[in-house]
What we know:
single chain, 69 residues, alpha/beta, 3 helices, elongated
Amino acid sequence: MKRDVVFVAGTFNVLHPGHLRLLKFAKENGSRLVVGVFTDRAAGVAAHVPQEFRLEAIKMNGLVDEAFF
Length: 69
């Protein structure tokens, strides 16, 4: 039984198939998937979508166990 925590982080402006493949791969390699979403300040000009919306989109994904800024 896998008991590892897998952590990934990114800006996640718009969830696209590449993000979903990453999240699926990460989840398959552990029992718990934790995702860090870069804040608007940390992402800088790469943040095209406000951080609250980006975090909400990640949290709504069924593969993700926990997400935070």
